[in-house]
């Protein structure tokens, strides 16, 4: 139980800080995404900037809502006080993930790194959506532990952006690769990390429960 509380405390701290940073960066510091767009070169499709920015802002907002909703639903205290809230909040998470996936699908063709990165983003979207649907299926069948485990896997994908930028920074600033190549590595590297890390967390929780 103590280990679970520690994991939740770390998760809450990282999630809240990342939400605050993301909102500040995208809506106050760089609302026109000039820094991010400066890396997009050689696009095969013409970028309709006003539309792209609106979709991007919706994408960011829904991603932050999904991260916050998921964090709340991992709280045992909230679950014990109101299962109704847990259920409604779960649907908020589900709808937010769906909107993130849809908006990401729109932006994928304009991804830094071209078609290869675009394919990676589409793969991320499909995997995240399927995992989230699996979590919903499990709770409909009253399989609480399996539902929780699939939600852990789903929630990991809320950190896609963080994971991509950490890996990109490692290869670009650490190993000296060009930004576009580093970003593409970040996209595919994130798929691997976001599938592996949740299973480690699930095993850790399982061991603490035993």
From TrEMBL:
Species: Paenibacillus alginolyticus
Keywords annotated in UniProt: Membrane, Transmembrane, Transmembrane helix
Any Pfam family hit: DUF2306
Superkingdom in the source lineage: Bacteria
InterPro entries cross-referenced by the UniProt entry: DUF2306_membrane
Protein name as catalogued: DUF2306 domain-containing protein
Transmembrane segments: 7-29, 49-71, 91-108, 120-139, 151-171, 177-202
